[in-house]
C-alpha cells in the first residue's frame, strides 16, 4: 500500500512539472485562423481561447465573424460572446481571465490553443501587460472633449510633441489609443513609451506562435468577399439594433461605425460598404505589421495542410 501511494505521488509530481504549451494562432483578418484553431484543438485534444477583442460581445456576431454554431461545436471555446457591449471590459481584465482559464486547461492538458487578430490582447496573454501609473480621470475627460471639438489630428499633434516614439509606433488613427498615450504623458509627466517593454512576470508556459499569411492581393480579395457575406447575412440589421449604444467604445469598430454613418444619412449604403472594405484592408495591414515583429513566429501559407503545421509545432515542444 505504501509503495502504491508513493508511486501515485511520483506520478502527480511528474504531471505537475510537465511542460505546458500555448499555441497562438495569428494573422490578418479573413485568413482562416478560426478554421485552423479548431483543427489544431482537435489534433491536440484541447480547448480554444479567443483573443479577438470584439468577439467577446454577444451583440456583435455577424460583423466580428465570430465562430458559428457548427464551429463552436468542433472544440470547446472560451471568451466568445461572454460579455455585453455595455460591460466595461478591457485588456487588463482579459489578461486576468485568460491566464486563469489557461491554468484550468493546463490541469488536464499540456497544450492549449489561442486565436485572434487583436495584437494587444494576444500579447497580454503571452507576454503580460506593461505597467502604467494611475492618472486623474479628469485628464481623459478633457482629452475626449478636445477630440470632439478639435478632432483626432489635434490630439495626434500633441502626442507627436510629447512622445515622438509613441507617435511613430501606436495606431494614431485609433482615438482610444491616442488618448490613452496622451493621458499617461500628461498625468505622469513622462513619455508613454517609457513605460513600455519593461520586465514582466514570466509565464508558466511556452508560447508557440503560428502565423497564417498569403499574397496581399489574395488577402484583400478574401476581405472583400467576407464583407459581402456579412452584408448578405444581415449585418445592417445587426447594426440597427445597436444604434442606442453607438457611442460605446466597443462599437468604434470597422463594419459598425461605417454603417452608423449610413443610418445617420451621412453616407449611402454603397459607399459605407466600400469604406468597410477599405478600412478592413487597412486593419489587416496593421495586423501583419504587428505580428511580423515576433521573429520566432512559424509562418505558413493559409492553404498549408494540418499535418505540416502540427509537425512544425511539435518540433518546438522540447
Automatic annotation (TrEMBL):
- Using the UniProt record, name the top-level EC class of this enzyme in a single word: transferase
Instruction: Tell me the function of this protein.
Output: Catalyzes the transfer of a dimethylallyl group onto the adenine at position 37 in tRNAs that read codons beginning with uridine, leading to the formation of N6-(dimethylallyl)adenosine (i(6)A).
Q: Which residues bind substrate?
A: 29-34
The record ties this protein, via HAMAP family, to:
IPP_trans
Q: What is the protein's given name? A: tRNA dimethylallyltransferase
Transmembrane stretches, start-end:
none
Which species? Algibacter lectus
From the broadest rank down, the organism's phylogenetic lineage runs:
Bacteria, Pseudomonadati, Bacteroidota, Flavobacteriia, Flavobacteriales
Site positions for Interaction with substrate tRNA: 118, 140
Q: Print the keywords alphabetically.
A: ATP-binding, Magnesium, Nucleotide-binding, Transferase, tRNA processing
